[in-house]
């Protein structure tokens, strides 16, 4: 059936600010869906309150509404735009819940709006635990023994009937919020109360716990002809008991028998066909008994999910793009395979490689948090790696995590205490996969590890083989490793860094040089969806060690953009937004744009965003070999946050041109001591400071600058390790702790300006002129990390004199630092005195917010300035903000109820929302203004 011609305008509901459990995978899905609909000549409107995403950018939609996700906002859009249909499946649980709410009050009916991509009744069936259970029984799909409870008494009765251990699953919640396992009767009352209060309908499912069973996810698509295809089967490395968002996952499934797989496929298709008459995407989760392969259904989500983004990147099949076309009436056989360009989209991808996803956690930001993993998701991001084998992909994923690991162990960071290791295996946390390897190294038998972790033996055998390889490697020296054995090590995913550590007394560069001598080179394979059965036309690559290199290097001038790696607190989606605009600007400037990144949730790793995509770790060895192959004009590190910036020194040493601000000047800004010396030279006020490399030196500095002092390390992002201390004892503890976690780092001791306001500026410099992008005034005082503070654009209470000083210092610093591109500066203001706290010559979290508020493509402009193809005077910049824009941080403390929620110099927010007000009399603003007054008076 061709597309529904009555649909000419579609509203896509976004997911709002990033929180744990609902991250930028919906930015990716929503962006892809919007572009897919625009291809069909459909006008696309988007509602989303997240300013940091590319989804809320003019390059994605015809009309972007940066509004709170409420029915009032929806109605405002429906009154302004001639909307024919709403697509709520691209914005996660937030969008689905809002769609239901709008349906319940008759909003869709009132404006004659079609709900496409899902059946509203289907949402009810899947979210209501009892309706879902009954539906599965009706269609002959197995489910765990369970009972619904709407009260404390009903829950107690259900527990008595089913028996322990139990799992509590609240209805209508996201990422397992409020859910959990109950192993003993004594724990049940508190867990039941939590679940009932977490559910908006005060409803929980009390269910038999199938702990230790294997867990699988299937990603499906269905068209209006009831054709259903399975895009990807994902196996959880971790057994049931850990939220899929916190589990290591593998595709394709590694340990499924063919009989079990076919049975699971049939059940998934039956489930999708049973939940309403709609066309679109769906995620189904199953649990499999490892003893007899009995299958039970866990849940079904009639929308794109975190796993949909992963499956799209894993297979090359753009699920959200095709789902959007199905939602407007197309059938699968009418659509083109986006990779081959010759076959239809009515096919199931075949993989001749393995992908591994590892979640990224930020427990360091939540001091005192319970790090044990369970049903409530705690990961803040994830990485994906592609290899020819499971173990190669697993090692590459470990290198991608941004946790200073060289791979799976063999890097000097192993745990050696057997008691601690075994506790970690029994009580899973972020490092369990590393501790499995540590256990094997200490001689713990495989069967003992299997019993305590319940991880499938096949996976454990793969990890155990690494220990045997390392034992063999230690027999050699670098110059006599047999070539075949060296090649085996590289094919098993070992980095040069790991090999150098295992050999001892040789450097990573020595290992690199030796394998090059032996002709052991990384080659690049194309992700092609059909195991090379048909030619692929999409430049989407991963590396391995074989003979044939499928990445053909063009003779065009090229620019490589280094991505930001996994999302984490302090480095979020705003850097991916910057990278995407960098790619677009490089293309517009006539360069072949090449992206290197490993985050499956993001738009930058969409295969049609760059001219060429390397889905690889942003890890030195991988980046180096891509550069050697492609020979670019230069590399952009300014847009990818700390992940990319930390490559700058090594890139310079290799003779690679850094596009934009030089390494020396970026390093000057990062080195807190040298930067303060620069401020002194420029006669720019700054807090008294000193630099220390030991606790003794720190005490001496503190006595000179005076308490309270701000203690912080150099070269970190998101306020990592910062603290405010008021006496010698606290200072000594803080410095010792920092040097333990960041050995060799300089510690900067600043006098802390109490009762000071905080403000910041962002600017672009082309070497001659400086354009102030925007200046913001913070609500929270100095001492609260800028990422955790509400910020108002433009300033509302800073005097003209203060603002002039901020502008003057920004211009002076931009020129002194030889900035080419972006510069963010943070200020402390006391009365009419303005002090510079720090300057960052790179993209910041605030630039996307300012760009959205003023409706100016600032990253695009900055990239062209960096590339030297334009000067600032070439652009006519017209700001469109009438009134004020407010950046409001969003936190995920509900995931960690046990932690201290007090804000300080170390960032804790996971995302942000934007709000516009016409004037300062707005009630929302008055509340913020009162809050600011209270803070300053109380300090």
TrEMBL record:
The gene is carB. Keywords: ATP-binding, Ligase, Nucleotide-binding, Repeat, Transferase. Its EC number is 6.3.4.16. Belongs to the CarB family. The keyword Ligase applies. This is carbamoyl-phosphate synthase (ammonia). It catalyses: hydrogencarbonate + NH4(+) + 2 ATP = carbamoyl phosphate + 2 ADP + phosphate + 2 H(+). GO terms for molecular function: carbamoyl-phosphate synthase (glutamine-hydrolyzing) activity; transferase activity. Residues 133-328, 676-867 form the ATP-grasp domain. InterPro entries: ATP-grasp, ATP_grasp_subdomain_1, CarbamoylP_synth_lsu_oligo_sf, CPAse_ATP-bd, CPSase_dom, CPSase_lsu, CPSase_lsu_oligo, CPSase_preATP-grasp. It comes from the Bacteria. It is an enzyme of class 6 (ligase). It comes from Sphingobacterium chuzhouense. The keyword ATP-binding applies.
